[in-house]
């Protein structure tokens, strides 16, 4: 009985020819999908960080403006410039500015929304684009002159 088990075990061990090729055939698509998923997550995280930074810069730029119209224009220009310098290409960029009257002691809130294209990662079945938004509030100097 023990001899039969030993003989059967040796035959199983010997018949492993070609198993490395089969394992590689199964593993390769999984590895490629995992790599694309890591790239997808990295691109989304980087886009979110850059949009958050653009909202921060835009709110700061708007908070030092003297008029609500100038604050809105400065926020839009600053957000677009910050994203362009960071290498983010937005299919649709929206900058919403709430100036609360732009008076000393108030705050300016800027929301930046950017639609980021992901169509080049289509093998994963992810949507063609994703909208990333960030909001930042910057206080207006209490002691500034009007």
TrEMBL record:
<keyword id="KW-0812">Transmembrane</keyword>
<keyword id="KW-1133">Transmembrane helix</keyword>
<feature type="transmembrane region" description="Helical">
    <location>
        <begin position="21"/>
        <end position="40"/>
    </location>
</feature>
<keyword id="KW-0472">Membrane</keyword>
<feature type="domain" description="TadE-like">
    <location>
        <begin position="18"/>
        <end position="60"/>
    </location>
</feature>
<dbReference type="InterPro" id="IPR012495">
    <property type="entry name" value="TadE-like_dom"/>
</dbReference>
<dbReference type="Pfam" id="PF07811">
    <property type="entry name" value="TadE"/>
</dbReference>
<protein>
    <submittedName>
        <fullName>Flp pilus assembly protein TadG</fullName>
    </submittedName>
</protein>
């Amino acid at each position: 009985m023990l001899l039969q088990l030993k003989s059967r075990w040796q035959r199983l061990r010997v018949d492993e020819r070609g198993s490395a090729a089969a394992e590689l055939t199964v593993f390769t698509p999984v590895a490629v999908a995992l790599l694309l998923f890591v790239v997808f997550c990295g691109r989304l995280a980087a886009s979110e960080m850059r949009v958050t930074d653009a909202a921060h810069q835009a709110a700061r730029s708007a908070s030092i403006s003297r008029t609500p119209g100038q604050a809105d224009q400065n926020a839009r220009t600053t957000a677009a410039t910050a994203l362009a310098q960071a290498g983010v290409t937005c299919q649709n960029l929206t900058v919403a500015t709430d100036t609360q009257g732009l008076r000393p002691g108030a705050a300016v809130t800027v929301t930046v929304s950017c639609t980021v294209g992901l169509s080049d990662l289509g093998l994963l079945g992810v949507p063609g684009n994703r909208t990333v938004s960030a909001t930042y509030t910057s206080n207006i100097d209490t002691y500034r002159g009007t």
